[in-house]
Amino acid sequence: MKRLIKVALCVSFIFYLLALAVLLFLGTRGYGWVDLTLMEYIKRFSNFVPFKTISTYIEALSSGSMNRDIPIKNLVGNLIMFLPMGIYLPYLIKRTNKVSKFSIAMIIVLFVIEVIQLVTRRGSFDIDDFILNMLGALLGFGIWKMKFVQKLLKKPLEDSAFPFESL
C-alpha cells in the first residue's frame, strides 16, 4: 500500500507539472506585443506594485464593473494553482518539510517562473500573481502538515528519503 501511494503521488506530480507548464507557458497573448522591444514589453506587461491587481479585481467584484468570471478565475485560480506544490514539495524533497525552507524554495520557484514568463513573452510579471501563488502554496503546506495527511502520506517516506530512489 505504501508503495502504491508513493507511485501514485510521483506520477500525479509529473502530470501536475505538465499542467502547470501548459497553464503558465503555452497560453497565448495577443499579437500586439510582437514589435515591442523586451524593455517595452516589460513596462507594458509588468506589475511591481503589491495588491494593485488584487484590489482592482476585488473592487470590480464589489462594484459589478467587470464580468465576475474574470476576477474570480484570476484570484482563485492563482491561489489554487500552487496549492498542490505545498503537498508535493515537502513529500518529494524532505529538506523542504519546514515552513522556512519551503517558503524559500517556493519564492525561488515562483520568481523564476515569473521571469521566464516575462522574458519568453508568454505572460507577465505580476507581483500579485506571485503573492497569490505563494499563499496557495502555503495553504497546501498547511494541509500537508495536518495530522491526517501526515499519517496517510508521510509514512511511506520512512522507506526512502526521496521517493524516486526506489522506483
UniProtKB/TrEMBL annotation:
Residues 13-146 form the VanZ-like domain. The chain crosses the membrane at residues 75-93, 100-118, 130-146. It comes from Halalkalibacter alkalisediminis. This is VanZ family protein. The keyword Transmembrane applies. Pfam families: VanZ (PF04892). The keyword Transferase does not apply. Keywords: Membrane, Transmembrane, Transmembrane helix.
